[in-house]
Write a structure and sequence with these properties.
With 409 residues, the chain is mainly alpha-helical. The radius of gyration is 22 Å and the shape is globular. The chain starts with a helix and ends with a helix.
């Protein structure tokens, strides 16, 4: 982002206008909402993680005493719940993989299948969670409400999730030995499941804007953590506590957002967007072509940028202009961007999701140094299904809706 800004400065003919463009980009209303939303979502994510909810969810699933054949499904479900509740794919992978993978291999499960299942579950929540950075970015760049985006995205996520779950059961029993799963977590963590009320509140709240909803959920999280003793009062305000860690943990994406919106203003004022939009319009004569171009843009952005949320921030304004010309509903553009970008986030080897999964698997000692993304990507069914479903949806038109004429105007 910094290099891009410096390059833009060198290319600018009028340096005074360059400064005005930077300031204008930072005044963008969407940027302001994104910053506050990321900060509040970061705090909420840390509340859910530090409360012990991860251990509680692990206890809930493993308490069922499932065999090794079900372990890929267990990993998928746990990560799906964690990533949906906490809004982070990498957080779910970091929390679950070091715990579940050693146990899985000990009882005879295929480690590549288990890693693929864990990554699939992480992608499920990253794509669907209302507090996920990709969900927030995809909604706001299209001018859509987060709750409407989650509601319309749910069928795609559930279909992909159900198909993935069935495949993990089939593949799990074909590659694993039927051995009883030992208990992983103390039953005292069961009470942390009360924290699951927070993501439910986010979805059912109606008539609230995103900032207000996140503040309410943060406050509910504080109260639950203190009342049930999940987090000590002193730790709550500590630098490593949910507030400190939550705020500082989002600084990277916020800093990039500053640079990105400044650069977007440059692209707008220089006419680059108009040129790109004109060329894309030539290949987007119909709503179907416009949506397929959107998918292509997100694919190229994912490969070039290497991060789902940043890809969405970059291509979002362009996608909005492209789909608006065909009066396509704003949630549709949001869902197409998020589905494709998060799908490729679990398949591109140098994106953090894949890097974390491979590095943690090797660090666990249960797989060799030769273990790579090629081992688990064939079993990352959620990512594959998201890409397939949204591409088929764009081709067939299933799920495509149009704004009312007044709203479009």
């Amino acid at each position: 982002g910094f290099a891009g800004l410096c390059t833009a400065f060198l290319l600018a003919k009028d340096k005074k206008e360059f400064e005005k463009a930077v300031v204008a980009g930072l005044k963008n209303d969407t940027l302001c909402v994104i910053i506050f939303a990321f900060l509040l979502a970061g705090v909420l994510s840390q509340e859910l993680r530090q409360s012990g909810l991860i251990q509680g969810l692990t206890w809930l699933v493993t308490e069922l005493g499932l065999s090794a054949g079900f372990l890929p499904l267990v990993g998928f479900i746990i990560c799906a719940l964690i990533s949906t509740a906490c809004g982070t794919s990498n957080g779910a992978i970091v929390a679950v993989l070091p715990v579940l993978l050693p146990v899985a291999t000990t009882v005879g499960a295929n480690p590549a299948v288990v890693v693929g299942a864990i990554v699939s579950g992480a992608i499920f929540g990253d794509n669907l969670a209302p507090i996920s950075d990709t969900t927030i970015a995809s909604a706001l760049t299209q001018g859509a409400e987060v709750r409407d985006v989650v509601r319309t995205r749910l069928p795609y996520s559930l279909i992909a999730g159900v198909v993935s779950a069935v495949l993990f059961v089939i593949i799990g029993f074909r590659t694993s030995e039927a051995v009883t799963l030992p208990e992983l977590v103390d039953a005292s963590y069961a009470k942390t499941l009360i924290m699951l009320v927070i993501p439910v509140i986010m979805i059912i709240l109606k008539g609230w804007n995103l900032i207000g909803t996140l503040i309410v959920c943060d406050l509910v999280g504080f109260v639950l953590c203190l009342v049930f003793g999940f987090i000590e009062p002193a730790k709550m305000v500590d630098a490593a506590g949910p507030i400190g860690a939550g705020l500082t943990g989002m600084l990277n994406v916020i800093c990039f957002s500053f640079f990105m919106f400044a650069l977007l203003e440059m692209l707008t004022r220089s006419g680059v967007f108009d040129i790109m939009l004109g060329k894309l319009h030539n290949a987007s004569k119909t709503p179907r072509q416009a949506e397929l171009v959107t998918i292509l843009i997100c694919f190229v952005g994912s490969v070039a940028i290497g991060a789902a949320s940043i890809t969405i921030l970059f291509v979002g304004p362009l996608v909005r202009k492209l789909l608006e010309t065909h009066n396509i509903e704003r949630t549709r553009g949001s869902n197409l961007m998020d589905g494709i970008s998060t799908g490729f986030a679990g398949l591109v080897p140098y994106i953090p999701v894949c890097l974390n999964a491979v590095s943690l698997a090797i660090a666990s000692g249960v797989v060799g140094e030769s273990f790579s993304f090629l081992d688990f990507i064939p079993y990352n069914f959620q990512s594959i299904m998201l890409i397939v479903l949204f591409t088929l949806s764009a081709i067939t038109g299933v799920g495509r809706r149009f704004d009312k004429p007044q709203a479009a105007k």
